[in-house]
């Protein structure tokens, strides 16, 4: 252990929900997109799932909202080391979309892509079983554009760069294919509890 | 009847925004924590200082890249933060960070009140290739406050290598006393003061006219635009760039909250 002379850290109580290397951002919700925030109205938003699925299809805003509503209440964790406790997102569980497209047995990975052109890769298993959402509300209000509104992917058990803002689609593949940050040196999966921040962690 | 679409071998989403393929990131150096020894502290403004470190094993970086820095308390508690590199690549075995003294800041607070030459911290990096500029394309840099730090690494690189490729810097500060690196700017730089300006200079935020004037220079190959600052500033500056005709896929943004 390399103790830093004179460093004690801020007063702390151990929070069981705080992964290693993270701090509680409190009321802050930093914005960390690398691209220009797209000017995207709900009427122009579409969401498509294709690749290794039985029924590739697209949804527009109203079609997606006709699916059963689902809420995520819990925590989120950014690789830049802030975490945010007790957030509340409203949207639809990805399971409702999977029921419609029916992934092939050969599908193992997903590339999520945004209307901005941003991409990120995920194992399909991280997007099933009630652990991932398409989210369009935060705290009961429409999701702000700078946080990915009108709709973003939400995968709260992974670092937040996996929760692609301005989500446009998911393509199912039988292999892993690095996305934007993953090509820039970040970890392929990004589990905060294992500190999978960078490639090689 | 079911339809299965075969995935392309290399999937390209319908994108206007892509990773710069010309920049490679070393995964090996990013995974490694190294000891950095503080050698010098220079005051830049009343609340901003530059911290110079010796890192003998530093593999080098591209201007604009950042690192992860870690402090460890006696009880094993650690705090880590991302910081942009201020120094140019040609500073063998040394790196510099320029840090704001953030109110209540756990890590910046240690730097501004405790740190002294000889102290050791841990760093890993350089990280991320997106907000990086190797010096091969015209660069239009726009920063506010400490957002100028990664842009200064680019400007210093441009100077040290005596590069001919065009480079312009628009830098915003509240007042002259808060302008970081004030003595280093030259003809490539336009400073904008939002609260207090020197005699004869206007007070006001970065405007469409400032941005349009530089975008209109249209150097051969076009500008690669780099915007760094608070989220509010980044939103403002990137909208001005788009309005001035800068292609959206050639605007790279680094924001801090």
From TrEMBL, chain A:
Pfam families: Oxidored_molyb. Residues 1-20 are annotated as: Disordered. Residues 37-181 form the Oxidoreductase molybdopterin-binding domain. InterPro entries: OxRdtase_Mopterin-bd_dom, OxRdtase_Mopterin-bd_sf. This is Sulfite oxidase-like oxidoreductase. It comes from Streptomyces akebiae.
Automatic annotation (TrEMBL), chain B:
Residues 31-133 form the FAD-binding FR-type domain. Keywords: 2Fe-2S, Iron, Iron-sulfur, Metal-binding. Its cofactor is FAD. PROSITE patterns: FAD_FR (PS51384). It comes from the Bacteria. The keyword Metal-binding applies. Coiled coil: none annotated. This is Ferredoxin reductase. It comes from Streptomyces akebiae. The lineage of its organism: Bacteria, Bacillati, Actinomycetota, Actinomycetes, Kitasatosporales.
């Amino acid at each position: 252990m390399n103790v830093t002379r004179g460093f004690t850290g801020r007063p702390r109580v151990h929070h069981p929900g705080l992964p290693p290397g993270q701090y509680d951002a409190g009321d802050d919700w930093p914005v960390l997109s690398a691209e220009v925030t797209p000017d995207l109205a709900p009427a122009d938003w579409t969401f498509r799932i294709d690749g290794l699925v039985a029924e590739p299809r697209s949804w527009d805003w109203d079609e997606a909202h006709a699916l059963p509503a689902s809420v995520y209440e819990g925590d989120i964790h950014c690789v830049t080391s802030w975490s945010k406790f007790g957030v509340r997102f409203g949207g639809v569980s990805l399971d409702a979309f999977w029921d419609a497209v029916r992934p092939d047995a050969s599908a193992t990975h997903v590339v999520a892509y945004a209307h901005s052109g941003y991409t990120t890769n995920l194992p399909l298993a991280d997007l099933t079983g009630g652990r991932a959402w398409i989210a369009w509300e935060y705290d009961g209000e429409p999701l702000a554009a700078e946080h990915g509104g009108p709709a973003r992917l939400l995968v709260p058990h992974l670092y937040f760069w996996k929760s692609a803002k301005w989500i446009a689609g998911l393509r199912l593949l039988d292999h892993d294919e690095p996305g934007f940050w993953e090509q820039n040196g970040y970890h392929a999966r990004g589990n905060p509890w294992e500190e999978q921040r960078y490639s090689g962690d | 009847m079911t339809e299965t679409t075969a995935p392309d071998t290399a999937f390209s989403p319908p994108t206007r925004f892509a990773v710069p393929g010309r920049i490679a990131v070393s995964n090996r150096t990013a995974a490694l924590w190294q000891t950095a020894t503080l050698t010098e502290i220079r005051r830049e403004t009343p609340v901003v200082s530059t911290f110079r470190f010796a890192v003998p094993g530093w593999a080098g970086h591209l201007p604009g890249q950042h690192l992860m820095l870690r402090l460890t308390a006696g009880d094993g508690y650690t705090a880590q933060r991302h910081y942009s590199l201020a120094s140019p690549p040609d500073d063998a075995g040394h790196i510099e960070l320029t840090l704001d003294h953030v109110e209540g800041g756990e890590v910046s607070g240690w730097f501004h009140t405790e740190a002294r030459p000889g102290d050791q911290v841990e760093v890993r990096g350089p990280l991320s290739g997106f907000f990086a500029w190797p010096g091969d394309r015209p660069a239009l840099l726009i920063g506010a406050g400490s957002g100028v730090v990664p842009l200064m690494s680019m400007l210093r690189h441009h100077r040290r290598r005596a590069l001919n490729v065009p480079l312009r810097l628009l830098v915003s500060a509240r007042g002259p006393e808060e302008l970081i690196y004030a003595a280093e700017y030259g003809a490539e730089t336009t400073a904008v003061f939002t609260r207090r300006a020197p005699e004869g200079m206007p007070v006001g935020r970065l405007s469409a006219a400032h941005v349009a004037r530089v975008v209109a220079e249209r150097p051969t190959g076009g500008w690669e635009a780099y915007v760094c600052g608070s989220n509010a500033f980044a939103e403002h500056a990137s909208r001005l760039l788009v309005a001035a005709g800068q292609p959206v896929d050639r605007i790279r943004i680094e924001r801090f909250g």
